[in-house]
Design a protein that fits this description.
mainly alpha, 9 helices
């Protein structure tokens, strides 16, 4: 984009390759549940924008404009969880997963990192609400689970749904994710690493519950 707008490559020589790469990147971003913020799939559209915009009349302004398009997206990809996330179909859970990436990418201070922990907790609560049914999933300790008690809801769901040695592992994994979220939202010295750990654990726990529920089963 910079080259064609600053006297370098000709659009007609690179248009096909640009579209091919755009589509490939779009697929990859979609697989990570990241929205593609680049507005131009066609270099001629980009040409129309810079040639018709007063603030983009020189090469420097065009370079800076392209940087503003790509920098947030690059930061979002770099800050995103290493654990891949595929949409579950539970709308509130999926919306929060997308928002987690945005919050982690934009967080710069302790309060914002703490807010990531709060969002992780909200995602786990929504996950519990999506799968837990009191009549089918009795709580481990016999105490009634409230609508915000992610730990009891998820533990009860796992214990009632999954048999064998994997049961305790998944329960511990869910508990650890919840504990990390609670710890982070109250940690006044929270850092990026604390927030990233919390996001990783939350995404991973969600993936495990989605597998248990059958939402990762191959299509017949």
């Amino acid at each position: 984009m910079i080259s064609v707008a600053t006297g370098g490559l000709r659009i007609q020589d690179v248009q096909y390759e640009f579209i091919r790469r755009f589509d490939a990147v779009n697929v990859e971003l979609s697989s990570r549940s990241i929205e593609n913020s680049l507005p131009y799939r066609d270099l001629w559209q980009w040409h129309g924008h810079w040639s018709g915009t007063e603030s983009l009349k020189n090469y420097r302004s065009r370079r800076e404009y392209v940087a503003t398009l790509f920098s947030p997206l690059i930061k979002l990809v770099q800050a995103g969880p290493a654990v891949a996330y595929e949409a579950t179909g539970w709308n509130r859970v999926d919306r929060t997963a997308n928002e987690l990436r945005n919050r982690l990418a934009s967080a710069e201070n302790e309060e914002q990192f703490q807010a990531v922990g709060l969002l992780c907790r909200e995602m786990l609560i929504s996950l519990g609400q999506a799968v837990f049914r009191p009549e089918d999933h009795p709580t481990i300790d016999g105490v009634k689970a409230s609508l915000t008690d992610a730990k009891r809801m998820l533990e009860a769901y796992v214990a009632s749904t999954l048999v064998g040695s994997a049961n305790e592992y998944v329960r511990k994994h869910a508990r650890a994710a919840i504990d990390l979220a609670l710890h982070l939202q109250h940690k006044r010295t929270a850092t990026f690493r604390d927030a990233a750990f919390c996001v990783e654990a939350t995404i991973s726990a969600t993936n495990l519950i989605a597998i248990m529920s059958g939402r990762r089963d191959p299509m017949a």
